[in-house]
Q: What sequence folds into this?
């Protein structure tokens, strides 16, 4: 089983390990900035490590066996197999999912498009089809562009209004005649809409745009670096 130090050596970056509540033992990490070239070298060294080809859609892939990295288009992936699954982001919201009994994991890529398409809510609904109750589902929200930096224009605000006509203003923040969007609030609303208690949610409080240790597409205007967020199920110990 890979450990934190190993991943740090593979990707040449620092990792934050999620400390799940309720004594869940599933390893899950949010990295700091990874250079694309380092990622391409590193990923070759990992087995059973799946990442979807992200397309800013709302497709939730259920993985029942290992598939090649980037071989399927999806922006969320869940599995009950002994695999690592993850997503890549550089301002968008990375979200990892675990169940209390340690039998299902998931990874979600939610930028503004995915958040408006309610990809997190769709993923949670899919997890529930396996019989998990809301209080048995745990969520970790990783580094992304926060409302301090995420200024949005009228076209996006109109789309937000259309999707959330009753409460769209709750996700916006107004400052100096500019409007800022909270992707965090937008995704927490989806968590609460599925009745998952907020104490099951772990949040990494960092803005990718403010903090130079992270890659930010808006700040850097480059796809040469990004964050990786991933989670792994391990083989059950025979006993
Ligand atoms: Zn910021």
A:
């Amino acid at each position: 089983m890979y450990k934190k130090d190993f991943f740090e050596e593979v990707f040449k970056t620092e990792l934050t390990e999620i400390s799940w509540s309720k004594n869940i033992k599933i390893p899950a990490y949010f990295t700091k900035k990874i250079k694309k070239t380092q990622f391409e070298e590193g990923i070759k060294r990992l087995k059973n490590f799946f990442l979807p080809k992200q397309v800013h859609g709302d497709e939730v892939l259920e993985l029942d066996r290992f598939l090649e990295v980037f071989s399927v288009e999806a922006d969320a992936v869940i599995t009950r197999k002994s695999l690592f699954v993850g997503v890549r982001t550089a301002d968008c919201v990375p979200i990892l999912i675990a169940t209390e009994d340690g039998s299902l994991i998931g990874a979600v890529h939610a930028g503004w498009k995915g958040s408006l398409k309610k990809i997190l809510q769709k993923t949670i609904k899919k997890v529930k089809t396996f019989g998990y109750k809301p209080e048995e589902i745990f969520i970790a929200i990783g580094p992304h562009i926060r409302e301090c930096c995420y200024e949005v224009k009228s076209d996006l605000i109109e789309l937000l209004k259309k999707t959330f006509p009753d409460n769209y203003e709750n996700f916006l923040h107004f400052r100096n005649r500019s409007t800022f969007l909270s992707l965090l609030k937008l995704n927490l609303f989806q968590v609460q809409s599925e009745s998952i208690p907020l104490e099951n949610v772990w949040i990494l409080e960092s803005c990718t745009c403010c903090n130079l240790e992270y890659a930010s597409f808006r700040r850097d205007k480059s796809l040469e670096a990004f964050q990786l967020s991933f989670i792994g199920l391990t083989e059950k110990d025979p006993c």
Remarks:
- DSSP finds seven helices and 15 strands in the chain.
- The CA atoms of residues 56 and 114 lie 6 Å apart.
- The helical segments are 4-11, 36-43, 112-116, 119-128, 154-163, 183-193, 217-220.
- The chain has one domain: 4-145+198-232.
